[in-house]
Amino acid sequence: MTRLALFASALILSLGVTGSAMAQAPATAITAPPVDYHVRVLANGLTLYTVRDTSTPNVTVQVWYGVGAKNDPPGRSGFAHLFEHLMFKGARDMPPEYMDRLTEDVGGFNNASTGDDTTEYHEVIPANHLQRLLWAEAERLCCLVVDQANFESERKVVEEELRQRVLADPYGRLFSLDVPEASWSVHPYHRPPIGSIADLDSSTLADVRAFHATYYRPDNAHLIVVGNFDPKQLDAWVDRYFGQITRPLQPIPRVTAVEPPRTGPQAINVYGPNVPLPAVVMTYAAPDAASPDAAALKVLDGVLTTGKSSRLYQELVYRQQIATQVFSNPDLRQQLGVFEVGAIMAAGKSAAEGETALRAEVAKLQSAPISGAELASAKNQLISQVLHGRETVEGRGNEIGQAIVIEGGVAKVNSDVADIETVTPADVERVARKYLADDRRIALIYRADTDRPAGQPDALVQDTPQVQATRLPPITALAETEILPEGQRAQPPAPAAEVAAVLPVPMERTLKNGLRVIVAKTSDLPIVTAELTIKNGAALDPHGLAGLSGVTTDLLPQGTTTRSATQIATEVESLGGSLTSGSGYDSSAIALSSLSATLPRALPVLADVVRHPALAQDELDRLRQQKLDGLTVSMQEPGALAGMAASRLVFGEGPYGHPADGSPASLGRITRADVTAQYARLYRPDQAVLVLTGDIDPATGFAMAEQAFGDWTNPVGPAPEAAAQPAAPGHRVLVVDLPGTGQAAVLVAGRSIPRHDPDFDAVEVANGVLGGGYSARLNEEVRVKRGLSYGSSSEIAARREAGLFEASAQTKNESADDVAGLLLAEIGKLDTAPASAAELDARKSTLTGEFGRSAATGDGMSRLLAQDAVESIDPQDVDHYIARTEAVTPAQEQAAALRLVDPAQADVVVVGDAKAFLPALKKRFGTVDVVEADKLDLDAQNLGASGQN
């Protein structure tokens, strides 16, 4: 399974299954319906790929270019990615940020990404705006304009992105820089797409013009349109806007570097600041993505790390308990790939132990075939992932783009699934032997700088002279050197008639025991989400036991009175499903993702987990250590630390003040008796809601709910209620000193209104104006105008008793004071500079568009319905949200802005390398509380800080 963001606050999958137990597990084969795509090639070489879907009111427009980080000019690592950003800065008839006017402001969104082989740009918009987006994409293909000011501003943004993704993340250097540098010696794949600050600083505007002329041409572009459109009309628009773009005569430069075979094993020690737990990554040379062996390698990856029943999880995390996270990744690319296997170690365990264990598991794959049940489970998980991706027009477009540019052709969209279905145990054993040879592995051992031997330099140097990159031809000027004056610009086409959204209709029934059951059919794809939500969570944690509700909920899938954790994982994952769990302040939930055909077998497992948990001591001990390791990592991440501190500052000793995930001290105090008592308080049917979404009709859903939960009985006595949320003293400025981190997190937080407040819709719109999107005021001031951050935003955590408002941005340490001032200034302007009608309409469209896209997926609709249900909001409210939001007037928004947050009472948290910004903060704010990160006390009202003037 591809490595994910480490220790994200995602829900935790159910634990464990042994190889022998898994061999006995039944598995159900599943298939994915084919994608009905159409292909047309224009005379200038541009290729159009389309998939029509009249069931959605949306459409995605994507353009995939055959150029990526491997094409960066010498000495310009990161340039393709920088150029991706610059494609949003203007064209002949489009001023900077105009793509946001055409997308976000009408209820859609846009984004882009740069990989090693490709750069893709995508938009999702209401279908009646399709012609406008085709016009816009053609405009920036033919007539891009970038001036020096925008070039310099966006380069700053990219450098902040690098700091955020790479330098501020404890493992960013390892995965983004060290792994590619070590894995390839000659091929330019060894240079990271994000680049380096030195190379970015050396880039020039002339480089931009040369890069556009060289690679951004119709015969190097793949246009993908998926959604609701008229095929004949679409063809006419594509011919009109793209067909007239001239195809250059010169050939497209291609990378021809050949990576030499590995001649032996290597062990490389690498280091980074603020590395809380050691890590090990082993890489092996792998084939290209179009290889006949690709499917077997994907299945091998699934056997290793997909789900908690996987081999690496079971051996390293569950049994030996030497790792807190394991991962594998068949990183197959256009020309050649690598296969990665790795682990983040548990506290007190060494990377050497991890490497030994990883090598042993790889050797097992080479010495004996996997079981039939393992094979079927891995296949079902892979195909289930495909089905979930195809729920959205964006997901289907992305799948097509990957097939075209990376995998060798659009036919791979459908043959990929068929290839997976034909993989055998012998195939998995064969590719393990062929590619994962122990004598050709490269092992990276990653530790903290404090472990580095004195005087030892970095083992890896980025962008070494060995790289063979493509030199650009002589510079060809862009068609236009400046954006036309406003009166001379061509205008985008007018929107067509609106395509009405048809939201799923939720149906509700309450069982005799008080359990509410809500069912909404959201898709014809054969997948279902079943989420059981309890109306209480961390707000009910007893004093001194922060994190108890989360521990209790996360223990539920770890064994019942009749099923072990092994059996739970085996049953669910062999059916192509997964169990997740999590607890917030006001609710706790267990969610099942299932195939519709196997739901009758999977739902009883969910019911058993909820109703009959064992809450065993050994599972509690194991889970506690995993959570402590997760906290160890989070407390080295500036953004995560700022969020932990904000809750305590805003809510003090109240139910929302302690960390929902617990603190190192509180987790250590939790006993099995505490867990069993908390389970008895929280888990009862009259305080629960079961939501079923996806490919399921109400009658079937109600019948299955009755069978699984109908005889669940309530305990004696009333349901518990959380204590009142007292006010906490406000307007504190807290600095958490995290020396060596590559970036500072700046957060302004304050108390806001609860979810049930009649003004909540208007307050949500006010927040949209402030920080609810790329074009909102915060991002405009911090990123677009000044280039001080990769992004700035604000949000309201909609809670039962009081909302938590947060406005945030991450920036280089030296700019933390400036960003704090900008956040506070923009919050204050909500009162003094009311939104114009146009601004208000745009931000309301952003809210309603995001809501509509979320409601169109099973997981999204499930979350919306469950959240409303625990707040006693009618499930039919989903059908009224858009109308209510659109009805908010400018006067209501301005009045609501005063209730969003009181800037005079807001708290400021800055987490970073304090020596770079503390003097400026003291000058601005006067009294500043300071605490060193390793002394931060999440259980204390003052967080362990001491005031400094």
List the helices and strands and how they pair.
Blueprint: E1 12-13, H1 19-23, E2 38-41, E3 47-52, E4 58-65, H2 79-86, H3 98-102, E5 109-114, E6 119-126, H4 130-142, H5 148-167, H6 172-183, H7 197-202, H8 205-215, E7 221-227, H9 231-241, E8 266-272, E9 279-286, H10 294-305, H11 311-319, E10 323-331, E11 337-345, H12 351-367, H13 372-389, H14 393-405, H15 412-421, H16 425-435, E12 442-448, E13 507-510, E14 516-521, E15 527-534, H17 548-555, H18 565-574, E16 578-583, E17 588-595, H19 599-611, H20 617-634, H21 638-651, H22 664-669, H23 672-682, E18 688-694, H24 698-709, E19 733-737, E20 744-752, H25 760-771, H26 777-784, E21 792-797, E22 803-811, H27 816-832, H28 837-855, H29 858-870, H30 881-886, H31 890-900, E23 907-912, H32 918-925, E24 928-932, E25 946-948
Parallel strand pairs: 3-7, 8-12, 14-18, 19-23, 19-24
Antiparallel strand pairs: 1-16, 2-3, 4-6, 4-7, 5-6, 9-11, 9-12, 10-11, 13-14, 15-17, 15-18, 16-17, 20-22, 20-23, 21-22, 24-25
Helix pairs in contact: 2-5, 4-9, 10-13, 10-16, 11-12, 12-16, 17-23, 19-24, 25-31, 26-27
